[in-house]
Amino acid sequence: MPQANKSLKHIVSLSLVTVLLSSCSMIPDFSTPQVQTPARWTADATDAQGQEIPSAWWTVFGDETLNQLITTANTNNLDIAAGIERINQSRASLKVAGASLLPSAEASLSAGKTRTNPVVGNTRTTTPLSAGLSIGYDLDIFGSNRAANQSARATLKASEYTQKALELTTAGDVAEAYFNLLMTRERIKIGNENLKNSNELLRIVEARVNAGVDSNLELSQQHVAVSNSEASLASLKQTEVTYQNALAILLGQTPQEFTLTEGDLAKIAIPAIAAGQPSTLLERRPDIASIEQQLLAANADIGVARAAYFPSITLGLTASATGTGFSDPLGTAFGIASTLTAPIFQGGRLEGGVELATAKQKELIANYRKTVLTSYGEVENALSAVQTSSSREQALSRAVNEAQKAYEISRKRYQVGTIDFATMLDTQANLLGAEDNYAQAMKSRLSASLDLVKSLGGGWKR
């Protein structure tokens, strides 16, 4: 009967420890901060039959060169490579935090040689040997180690979501640089055509001056027009180099080894994108998912700081064996001990730790709400831009057609002397402006679609 009572006491004690281990947690209850969600998008410019965004979102533009560029960037971009290593750092931190939940074991072995020379007797040589094993385990009654592990796990998840957001941003930067490069080349093409027309008109003016029809004033004005065209072209060519170099860096290549000759701005498709409901946006934005995981980590850090107020209990088991020579039997000894460590006076360190962790969490709550509101604003801006850029492109297309007609008419009339040179210059400038604006409008429409895709999370889903 006494033996049975003793066993019962052991069982009860073990049960109490188990309950303590499972129930004592200093981590506050967590709930995602509330942010008012709009019922619908105000500037809904999407087609009712618009497609959902695929995970390889860049394919919606139907441009093989763009597909190849982004595929290369996903492999070689250095920001993405650095982000992968940040994930590895978070994964290693989780491994370190997880180790505190398991027992630790250490072994030791020592050997020596001792020679004694007694006053009377023979010299004696001994070889003392000792071996030891120690095992320790932190009971973690108040959940400090579990909270640290939970924080590390959430931090790893946040790193993974941040990486997805980085990949989306990088691919978007590649697409934007590509669109800018093609737009600049289109503007250079327009500039070359304008320079050609300006030189042809210069020859006409020279002939009219030689014939005494026009004065040197008209000739000087046309020389100015030619020089301005040359200056604009030089500036555009520098811009082309800048965009191409930016694209090279995004692809992880040196500008010297990168050249892109493919691509046509007018042939890139304008996708019809379904924006979906605002209520689903939080599940489609990796940056929002990342900051939510950061909040979870900060919440767990409060648990770590709170647990520091309470005692920690460590159980230890030791075993050792000693002997005086390789031929002597080893003597063994076993020991078991527990250590309780409790804070008494810390000079405000513990209070400061809780206050610091709480303030960090509140900062993240504010950042979370701002990120959500910003995401709603980005979608609204992109939807509006899709609508207005389409209208602008159509209007400028009509303007180009009319400007071309006006230029041809004024050129013929100037040659026969029915209009003055100032009118001819105006129509020439109007044509250049209309064509240049139209090239920029085509790019703006592509950028608006790109911004919409990015603001909707680029096809990512939790």
Structural write-up:
The protein is built from eight helices and six strands. The protein is an alpha+beta fold and 462 residues long. A hairpin with a 7-residue loop joins strand 2 and strand 3. The two termini are 59 Å apart. Mean pLDDT is 90; it is low at 1-12.
Features:
Outer membrane efflux proteins (OEP); disordered N terminus; two-stranded antiparallel ribbon; single chain; 462 residues; alpha+beta
CATH fold-level topology: Outer membrane efflux proteins (OEP)
Mean pLDDT, nearest integer?
Answer: 90
Biggest sheet, in brief?
Answer: 4 strands, antiparallel
Q: What best-fitting shape do the alpha-carbon axes yield?
A: elongated
The assigned CATH architecture is: Up-down Bundle
Strand order, largest beta sheet: 1-4-5-6
Order of helices and strands: HHHEEEEHHHEEHH
Q: Count the beta strands.
A: 6
Number of domains: 1
Helical coverage, percent range:
55-70%
Rg calc: 38 Å
CATH superfamily: Outer membrane efflux proteins (OEP)
Count of DSSP H/I helices: 8
Highest-level CATH class: Mainly Alpha
β-strand percent reads: 5-15%
Distance between the termini: 59 Å
Spans of at least 5 consecutive residues with low confidence: 1-12
Structural class: alpha+beta
